[in-house]
Amino acid sequence: MDTAPLKAFLLKNDPEFWVQLKVLTYAARDFEELFLLSSLRKKAHARKLPPANLPKEKLRLAILGGYSLYPLHELIEHLCEVENHPLELWQGDYDNYISEIMDDDSGLYTFAPQVVFLLPAERRCTYTGKLTDPRQMQQAEAQRVVDSLLELARKVNEKTGAEIITTNFMLPARHDLGAFRSRTLGSDWSFRKWVNLELGLASPAYLHICDWAFLAARHGGLTARDDRAWFESKQPCSPALMVELAREAAHLILSLKRAPKKVLVLDLDNTLWGGVVADDGLEGIELGDTSPRGEAFKAFQKYIASLKQRGVLLAVCSKNDHAKAAEPFEKHPDMVLKMDDIVSFKANWEPKSENIRAMAPELNLGLDSFVFVDDNPAEIEIVRQFVPEVTTILLGPDPSDYVTQLADCRLFEPRNITAEDAGRTSQYQSEARRKALEASVTDMGSYLESLQMQATITEFTPVDVPRLSQLINKSNQFNLTTRRRSEAEVIAVMHDPACVGYSMRLQDRFGDHGLISIVIGKKNGQTMEIDTWLMSCRVLKRQVEEEVLNELARVAKTRGCRTLHGIYLPTPKNEMVRDFYGRMGFTLTSESDAKREFELPLDNFQPIPTKINITRRAYDPS
Amino acid sequence: MTQAEVIAKLQTIFDTVFLEPVVLTPAISAKDVPEWDSLTHISLMVSVEKAFNVRFRVGEVENAKNVGEFADLIIKRQTER
Q1: Over chain A, what is the mean pLDDT?
Q2: What's the 3-state SS for A168-197?
Q3: What is the pTM of this model?
Q4: Burial zone of A403 (CB within 10 Å; 0-12 exposed, 13-18 middle, 19+ buried)
Q5: Are B19 and A40 an interchain contact pair (Cβ–Cβ within 8 Å)?
Q6: How far is CA A111 from CA A59, A89, A160, A339, A583, in A?
């Protein structure tokens, strides 16, 4: 790395220094390079050559742990600052982190950090008993290590509200113990693996793991450590790994401040497949398992598909004839990506910068959430120049490296667990418990009884309108008529004196299912026509249908009706309810391909007994 | 390598690390160079080990009192390989 031009800018007090500093910082791989850049940066500050647009507001970061944090803090500060996030640092004393956290009057709390970076001492993450102790004993100690770290994090978060980043523990890279290391939890190898795993899985949302074990494995176990640096100055690891550690820490710190990327814009020819489809034709492009290059492109598409599954939106931007560009998506048997996967498809002769600019309002997303990949440096350059907000990745030259190039760009990493994810997890867990219970009880009746189901039935209310309309518009399978209704139309039903409309909410001892069934009836003389009856399939076989019918009969009778009139309108998706009315005791009165009609007289109707306890009914005067 | 040759090569490393020019002599030491603090020292040693392809033993660098002794240490570790 040639730093002479950088120094020259500095000695001339030329602001170009900052531009070069950023470029060299991205390129720096060695500790001494990065450290030198950081020193020059500090000298630039001392010489009053501040970067023009550096925010005044500094992020308050506290670093503490069981090591000398010097010069690690220096590198982290440098990496954040070149990304335009200057830091105000507070450093804990060497190996004083436990008391700094536990002592309410410590300097840590006076500093009031926004982010805390904690490096717990690895020598405290070791089993102190015998290798041959019972596994339960060893595991209990590993659990204590995890619990005490979680407790430290909880305490800091509770006192300061700060986000906390903690390193986990590097694994040993020595042959000591031989094959026995894997046969006992008492070895550092097994003990730390267990602690790392449990710590990661048990971390609350405010605690982020800086995966030191991963970084060391990626870097190479033998060169990750430097025992001499530990004895001489209590350094946490080798200088080379310290660069990786600092980059990871800076990445995590900045991730807390930066919005994630949302859209991946893809070139086509020589990006998604080999060759040029307009020249080589559908049969001529390289894609699929018939050639090594074709395999590489297919693997790249599979990786992109996995990004989509994580929630990244995919778009296409190609200099191409639209029909020819679309053809592989529609017809090529080895295309992993299909037209349905692409939210915006731009294949034309306009500059790519203009095409990408046009996508932003189309998708209602800022340009800074876009990432563009292309194998052509000229296309990358035009986008860089004319839409600098977009992040660009130049692929190549070998398609077998494409996946690595995209996977290591660090732009599409899932963030923390959201409340929604957490909700999904708990839904999944209660479903699993429910299934376990179902397997354990012998008959359906006692199973349903054991669920302790409770339901409320509510007439349409203004506050429910969005949820009602949503369910009306998305239910396909258990939906007798599949009549869609906007929110305004739901409100119209609510105000129509000839209509009844109600919904049911269900909960049981494992969880709340929310609003799961909707009925709309239209009174026509002494007949109540069932305009809409739908139900969420999650609650099939739970006797919800029976209770909905009981309620329908009750409400219809209070409105002076003597008959229920059921209609089934077949769609490609609602076969499951074709005979539903028949099963519920209705009589088939007419039948055609387009419609089946049923009737149920109400005069002698007896409510069907169920295991659901109805705690509120529709149009309930109470 | 002679001590003078080692110091000449060290000079190029110091020129990279320090912004203000420092002329190395056998008698000069860290306390004579304002930029040569304990932080810079770590980086300097990493650079020297790479440039001379040597590895110092634990604790021995801090025993070198000046650049001359440090150069001698480099020679000692070089010849040992």
Answers
A1: 91
A2: CCCCCCCCCCHHHHHHCCCCHHHHHHHHHH
A3: 0.70
A4: middle
A5: yes
A6: 12, 9, 10, 53, 70
Q: How far is CA A549 from the centre of its chain?
A: 40
Buried b (16+ CB within 10 A) or exposed e, A195-230: bbebbeeebeebbbbbbbbebbeebeeeebbbebbb
Closest CA to A543 of A579, A575, A583: A583
**Which pLDDT score, from 0 to 100, does residue A182 have?**
95
Q: What percent of chain A has pLDDT over 70?
A: 95
pLDDT digits (tens, 9 = 90+) for B30-50: 999 988 888 888 889 999 999
Q: Which residue, among B36, B46, B50, would best test binding to A if mutated, counting the most A CBs under 10 Å from its CB?
A: B46
Is the pLDDT reported for residue B19 higher than 70? yes
The distance of B43 to chain A (nearest Cα, Å) reads 5
Flag residues of chain A having pLDDT under 50.
none
Burial A117-154 (b: 16+ CB within 10 A, else e): bbbbbbeebbbeeeeeeeeeebeebbeebbeebbebbe
What is the interface size between A and B, counted as CB pairs within 8 Å? 43
Residues of A within 8 A of B35 (CB-CB) are 39
Chain B contact for A35 (CB, 8 A cutoff): yes
Nearest to B19 among A31, A43, A228 (CB): A43
pLDDT tens for each residue of A545-555: 999 999 999 99
Check residue A444 and give its pLDDT. 78
Among candidate residues A144, A142, A139, the one with its CA nearest the CA of residue A195: A142
Q: What is the pLDDT of residue A528?
A: 96
Tokens of A606: 């007896």
Q: Are A337 and A305 in contact (CB under 8 A)?
A: yes
ipTM of the assembly?
Answer: 0.91
Q: Cβ–Cβ of A31/B43 closer than 8 Å?
A: yes
The whole-angstrom separation of Cα A618 and Cα A555 is 8
Q: What is the pLDDT of residue A215?
A: 98
Point out the residue among B46, B59, B62 whose CB comes nearest to the CB of A239: B46
